[in-house]
Amino acid sequence: MMETCSSPEDKPSMFVIITSFTIPGMECIIGIIGNSFIMVTNGAEWVQNRKFSTGGRILFFLSSSRIALQSCMMMESFTSLIFPSFYKEDTIYDIFKVVFMFLTFCSLWFATWLNIFYFVKIANFNHPLFLRLKWRITELMPWLLWSSVIISFCYSVLFYQQVYYTSCNHSIPDPFSNSTKKKYIINTNVINLAIIYNVGMFIPLILFMLAAILLIISLKRHTLQMESNTTGSRNPSMEAHIRAIKSISSFLILYIFNFVALLLYMSNIFDDDSFWIVFCKIIIAAFPSGHSVLLILGNPKLRNTWGRFQHQIWSCYFSSCSWTLSGK
């Protein structure tokens, strides 16, 4: 796939610049705030107890990767819109894509391990393999997290040489003058992109879907057992199953939209000034932000801590207003 990119003189339209800065920018800011809250909350637990819980460790890794991811998205968007000639240089362009995909892969892997951890803790199976995993999940999780970082790095590095190549054509005639101007050409190897992208995204997704299916099976078995015992009310185990399935379903919906938008965005099939580029950026930025909000609302500890944090913010605000009015 070959796309003729804008020259330094042909910056994106003001509409594209404003829209790209406002909507995706606000989404990234919301995501950074939400993930910073998750990271600080779990980091404070580590400082206080001198150790991480397994769930807290995963959330710390996940929130850290998403803060870095959305910061990278904002930096890349700013550079591509304001300094297109610098952004389209071969090395700079490749570095942005490598870092972006590394953080994307890490974020997906960490979210997958979080859901697998919830599945192992909540589900009820008597299979020896599951019981062994349930017993060793705390011991295995640090190794799984760091292995995911290494795997993500290996996949993302392939984007540096195997997917993109930028060049500059200095001989494009300028219809408004007798001179020529330069156009930046991005060559995208679509086959390599599809292979690297799909392999990097599908492996954690398969694990994620397997955990979701087994969790639904566990809930079904638990429901049948409750009916056989003629118990009308839900017990804590059933409530935990339902909360986990809702969380997984919400994540899966966000992931599907993000998967399609990210593939289109990385393929360079749209012009830089296209509405679809802006739309893809909006979807991509909404994924980590939306999931962080769902994590806070779905986790009782995070939800209660966020409520206390909001109460303190409002108390400080009203105290400052009262002090100002009394001073007058």
What can you see in these coordinates?
One of its GO terms (cellular component) is membrane. GO terms for molecular function: bitter taste receptor activity; G protein-coupled receptor activity. It is found in: Membrane. The chain crosses the membrane at residues 12-38, 58-83, 95-120, 140-160, 195-217, 251-270, 276-298. With 328 residues, the protein is mostly helical. It has a single domain (12-163, 192-307), classed as Rhodopsin 7-helix transmembrane proteins (Rhopdopsin 7-helix transmembrane proteins, Up-down Bundle). The protein contains 9 helices and 3 strands; from the N terminus they run E-H-H-H-H-H-E-E-H-H-H-H. The chain has helices at residues 14-49, 54-82, 84-87, 90-122, 128-162, 190-228, 236-267, 275-298, 300-327; strands spanning 2-5, 164-173, 180-188. It has a 3-stranded antiparallel beta sheet with strand order 1-3-2. A hairpin with a 6-residue loop joins strand 2 and strand 3.
